[in-house]
Amino acid sequence: MRVRPATAADNEKLIAIEQLTPQGGQIQLVSERKDYFFRAKKFADPIVLVAEDEEEDMILGIMAVGPVELKLHGKTLRGGLVFDWRSNPMAQKGLPRHMLRLWQAAHKEIIRRDLDFLFGYVKEDNFRSMSIITRYGAEVVESKDFLTMPVHARFCRRRSEVDKVAFTPKPEEEKERAALARAFGELDLFPDWTQRDATREQRDRYLFGKFSYKGSSVKVWDTTGEYTQRVLNIPKLFKVVRPIVQAGSRLLPLPHIPNLGEELRVWQLFDLVLDQGEDLNPLLEKVRQAAVANNIHYLVICLGAEEKGYELVAKKAWVKPQYQLFFMPLKEGIPMPNTPTYFDVSFL
User: Taking the model in full, what pTM does it have?
Assistant: First the structure.
């Protein structure tokens, strides 16, 4: 076994590994990327390593770290986002040796890049990765829920209010940067937007637009051109009730029950600024109308329980997958982040 940098030649093998690790319970979804490296390309000088069984010509696992400059207690520091850390399910079970080897090799590169801390988001049931991370000194500092809402039924029936929601497909960059700083600039893990050329490219490519209502707003991130999820398994009962749910969903916010093999399309909402609680329904309804027009099945927003608007949005969510934010200082004197932290949608 050897650990080496991943290359474009590994793309098909890595996509195949991801398709062997479906997510979900009764309805299982498999992720589909056109380019496995589309997340890594968001960072300057990312660390992307694979563990490889040379005799079997098989990739055993992968780990990636993206250097990024973030605010921490008012100072801008260099952090490393850990992502795409997964093991090939066709490899040995238990806690594979190659997962530790990947971590050790990545740690050497992290030190060489002089990063101040590591952080990342790990699904609550991913005990394997979390056990390795905590063994090396990381701590869980916050939970984030990916609140998932169906788009069939209306969020608001007051058409006159919904019509007041403004849509801006291309918010003016300097004004938007200032607005973001006012709303979220005091939060830890808030990024330095000027640091990466990729940041502007991403927002040009994936930002669907900004929806505004009175003093409230939310943005939509659309990566469906790069990344979707396909239904791998669905219980027989769901197939039977699917026509009934489809009919009822015109009146009630029932979830979309997909067909086997169907591609699910999701929009990620982010940067929710909620001036008044009653602003949420017209805002979401305008987003929902745009989602339906673009064949989107679900709206998802990542929020922690401490964040404004969490309880209001959570009431509308049918599914709430939880991720743990871990943090690991790499130098003396680096403090743990205060919560709630800022969630950068570009890390998805």
Answer: 0.86
